[in-house]
C-alpha cells in the first residue's frame, strides 16, 4: 500500500518527500519499527514519540508522521506533519487494515462497571444464535471461539484494527468491544466505525489519570460524540448521567431502565441465589446470573440485540442459557458446600457495595460475610479509604490485603485504606499484606454457612509487584484455601 493511500483522513498539514512510497507496516513504538515502516510519533502520558524519530529512522522507517517535524530530515525519508498524531494513527491503521470495522457490525460498551459482562454476554449471545462474532475485552479477546490474551481494556489503535481485520478474515459478522475512558481520551478508538454504543453506569474511578470526576465523565462521553448517525446509542437512564452521555451524539438514542419508562424496560420479579426472574416487554425470563447489577447487564444486552435486528423470542431463549462471566460473581464452593466463596472484579467502592448488597439479599440466619479486599498501586488513591469503608459497612469481618501494588509499597496502600475504617468497625478488620495468606485466613475464620468474598482482581491470573507479574489466581487460591481450612 502506498503512503498516500493511508493519509486520506489523517488531517495532513504539510509534507516533505515522496508520498507514493510503499508502506509495509504502521508503528508508534520505535522498538517495533522494521524496514518499510511508517512511524507515527504520538505524545503519550509518560513518553513523547517525537523523541524517538531518530531511532525509528535508524531502524528502517521510510516515513515519519508527527505533529512537529524534526530539523534533521534525512534524504529518502518522507515526513508528514499532522494536526494530531493520535487521531492520524487510528485513521491510518484503519486504512492499512482495509477498514475492517465497516465490514462487520461493531458495538462498543463503556461505563465504570458492567463493561466486561455486557460485552462478553453479547459475544456469547450472538455465538449461541449461530453468528460468528469477535470480542475485545479485559478478560480476553476472541475471534469467533478462539481466545487470545488481553493486556488492556482497549488495545492500542493498531492492535484494534489488526484484531478486527482478523475477525473479518475469519468471517465474523459482529464484534463487541469494551471502550475504556483511557482509550477514548487517548483516541485509541479513532478510525473505528461503530454500529452502536452502550453506556452502563459511571462512578468514581481512574481519577489517578483523569484527575477530576468531570474529566472522567467527559472522556466517557467522547465515545458517544464520535458515533455516526447510522449507529444507535443505548444508555442506562437509571444512572443520572446517562442523558449527559448522549446530549451531543449524532446516533439514534435509546434508553433502558429497571425503574422508569424507557425504550427497553424490565421488571425484576425475583432476585435469588439461583438466579434472576425478570419480565422483558411482558415476557417472563429466567437467568442463571445473580444480582440486580446483572439485571441491568442483561437488559443492555437484550436491547442491543433487538437494535441489531434480532428476533425478540430468539434473543430471550438464548440469553436464558448463558452463565456468569469469569471473575464476575464467580462461585467457589467449599467441601460439602458448607462455606461459599465468591470471586469478583469489584475494584471501585460502588461495585464493591453492589456485590456485597447482593450477597446480603441471600444470606440466611446467622450467615456471616467475610471480605478480602485491596487496592491497586499507581492508581486512584482517593478511592482507597472508600473501598475499606464499603467493605466494613457491608461485611461482618474484613481482611485488607495487597491487590496489584505495582511500584508502591503494599503496606502503605493498606495504611491509606485503613483511614476509611469507621471507629466502631476497627475490631472486625485484619490487615494481612500477603494476599494468599489473607485469603487463607478468611477461610479459617469462616464457619459453616459463611460467605467469603475475594474482591478486586476477578479474572486476573497474576499479581503485579515492582514491575513483575507473578502467577496468582484468586479463584484457584480461594478453592485451595476452602478445601484446606
Describe what you observe in this structure.
The chain is an alpha/beta fold. Helices cover 32% and strands 23% of the residues. It is built from 16 helices and 24 strands. The chain has helices at 3-6, 53-58, 85-96, 115-128, 157-169, 181-185, 207-210, 213-225, 242-245, 292-307, 312-319, 349-362, 383-394, 410-418, 435-445, 474-484; strands spanning 12-16, 25-27, 37-40, 63-66, 78-82, 105-110, 133-136, 140-143, 146-149, 174-178, 196-199, 232-236, 252-257, 264-272, 275-280, 283-287, 330-333, 340-344, 369-373, 397-400, 429-431, 451-455, 462-465, 468-471. A hairpin with a 2-residue loop joins β14 and β15 (275-280). α12 runs parallel beside α13 and α15 packs across α16 (474-484). The protein is globular and about 80 Å long. The N and C termini lie far apart (62 Å).
The gist of it:
The chain is an alpha/beta fold and 485 residues long.
List keywords for this structure.
6-stranded mixed β-sheet; 485 residues
Which range best describes the helical content: under 10%, 10-25%, 25-40%, 40-55%, 55-70% or over 70%?
25-40%
**Any low-confidence stretches, pLDDT <50, length ≥5?**
none
Oligomer: single chain
**Strand composition percent:** 15-25%
Largest sheet: 11 strands, mixed
Q: Largest beta sheet: what is the strand line-up?
A: 9-8-7-10-6-11-12-13-14-15-16
Tell me the overall shape. globular
If you compute it from the alpha carbons, what radius of gyration comes out, rounded to the nearest whole angstrom?
Answer: 24 Å
Q: Compute the separation of the termini in Å.
A: 62 Å
Mean pLDDT, all residues: 93
Strand tally, please?
A: 24
